[in-house]
């Protein structure tokens, strides 16, 4: 009976020691991974919106970019760059607010199609927006 208790005590000691060593070795890497994912922008969860996709050349179109992480949470204070193949942007860079939103204004000098893309920290937002300026 005593020998069985001693074996159980050894097993308990081994499990406790192994758990302690495991926690000490893996705690820092796990914390780094968790923290990194919460502040890194997500290509798929971030998005670009336009208040209109059909506009006259004299109109101003509001382009809104939302920067999100992999969990879909807003990322404030991120620098966002917007590019267009045609059209005129009042600014090409903005900082996200507390809701992860950056706002830009797009205009045009004539009838044209403008494809809008955005990026932050070298990560391109997966969707693009196309705005058609027409002479209607």
UniProtKB/TrEMBL annotation:
<dbReference type="InterPro" id="IPR013783">
    <property type="entry name" value="Ig-like_fold"/>
</dbReference>
<comment type="similarity">
    <text>Belongs to the intimin/invasin family.</text>
</comment>
<protein>
    <recommendedName>
        <fullName>Big-1 domain-containing protein</fullName>
    </recommendedName>
</protein>
<dbReference type="InterPro" id="IPR008964">
    <property type="entry name" value="Invasin/intimin_cell_adhesion"/>
</dbReference>
<dbReference type="InterPro" id="IPR003344">
    <property type="entry name" value="Big_1_dom"/>
</dbReference>
<dbReference type="Pfam" id="PF02369">
    <property type="entry name" value="Big_1"/>
</dbReference>
<feature type="domain" description="Big-1">
    <location>
        <begin position="43"/>
        <end position="134"/>
    </location>
</feature>
